[in-house]
Amino acid sequence: MTLSEMRRWIDARGLQLTKSLGQNFLHDGNQLRRIVAAADLGTGDRILEIGPGLGPLTELLVATGLPVTAVEKDERLIPILGERFQGKELLTLLHRDALEWLQETPLDWDDWKLVANLPYSVGSPILVELALAERPPRRMVATLQWEVVQRLAAAPDTDAYGLLTVLVGLQFQSAGSFKVPKNCFFPAPDVESACITLVRRPEPLLPPALIPLYSQIVKTAFGQRRKMLRKLLRNRWTEDQLTPALAAAGILEMARAETVDVDGWVRLTLGLAGPVGAIVLNGTGCGSTHSR
Ligand code: SAM
Fold first, then answer.
1. CATH 3.40.109.10 is the classification of domain 3-200
2. Given CB 3.0 to 4.6 Å as the disulfide criterion, which of 8, 56, 121, 269 pairs with 1?
3. From the centroid of its chain, how far is CA 129?
4. Which protein residue has the closest C-alpha to ligand 1 atom 5?
């Protein structure tokens, strides 16, 4: 979909683009093809696109011949998408708020790949929702603000490292990113953008039953960035629980959350999990495997 085609659809429908919905549409063919290539799509994949907009990315996704589910919040775009993709039986178009839909409908995402130019205002919560799913997607290729992409790929002890890094990092690893110049969008966004590829870890680090505990621990520990994590965790766990769990995780007395890597948070979760954690620590596994 070229910029002039995009403008034609917008003008023909008298559409006023909505900034709060992040309506900056991507019209650059090279960038769109790079995004699709990053998804490494193949037989057996199912594709989730969040925020299809006028469908420039949807077009390339549908052309793969794989099933695509596209979730769009703006009701004005639904008839346009319906018209553009008429007869495309492998496309399921949902008119929903994607975040609400993901929260209400916990699905088995095991065979899925997210490929999306995400609405920036809800990009992070959408990624976290999918990343912490019991059966997360195989891969997530997402265009977001550059600042968020940096946070997703950050190493411990850097300014960008934080709660988002460790929530998504539990089940995903960054496989690289590239910048998408502002002039590739219509209208050009105010912020810098980039596309990141997040690949599901080959084996889960925790059994699904412990993901909520992991999430609770890191949310508490990152609650106040400059405070010692032990002090913050004391609001929820006793000294008797914390002392052995922190020692077993190799986390120092004075440590702050931003110095602990994902493996450290996993070990701490297992230490605070009681008997279930002990079973995993003793090597009987995570009780779940990914298909590939
Ligand atoms: N994929 C298109 C493209 O690349 O040109 C559009 C991307 S635009 C950055 C984000 C899209 O997400 C818009 O179409 C917007 O209406 C839609 N959107 C915003 N918030 C949403 C939400 N909560 N759920 C689903 N779609 C949403």
1. no
2. 56
3. 7
4. 25
- Predicted confidence at residue 105, as pLDDT, reads 80
How many Å apart are CA 33 and CA 253, to the nearest integer? 49
Q: Is the predicted pLDDT of residue 158 greater than 80, yes or no? A: yes
Q: Taking the domains of the chain in order of start, what are their residue ranges?
A: 3-200, 208-281
Among 49, 72, 126, 193, name the best residue to mutate to test ligand 1's pocket (greatest count of ligand atoms within 8 A of Cβ).
72
Nearest CA to ligand 1 atom 1: 52
pLDDT in tens, 108-126: 999 999 999 999 999 999 9
Pairing of strands 91-95, 68-72: parallel
Cβ(48)–Cβ(69) below 8 Å = yes
CA distances from 174 to 61, 73, 166, 203, 224 (A): 22, 28, 12, 15, 26
Centre of ligand 1 to C-alpha 58, Å, is 12
- Give the residues surrounding ligand 1 with Cβ less than 6 Å away: 21-26, 50-53, 56-57, 71-74, 77, 97-99, 117, 119, 122
Beta-carbon contacts of 100 under 8 Å, excluding residues fewer than 6 positions away, are none
Say whether domain 208-281 belongs to CATH 1.10.8.100: yes
Question: What number of other Cβ atoms are within 10 A of residue 7's Cβ?
Answer: 13
Confidence (pTM): 0.94
Ligand 1 centroid to residue 45 C-alpha, Å: 22
- Express each pLDDT in 264-286 by its tens digit: 999 999 999 976 666 666 665 55
Distance of CA 191 to the CA centre of its chain: 19
Measured in Å, residue 89 CA sits from the centre of ligand 1 at 22
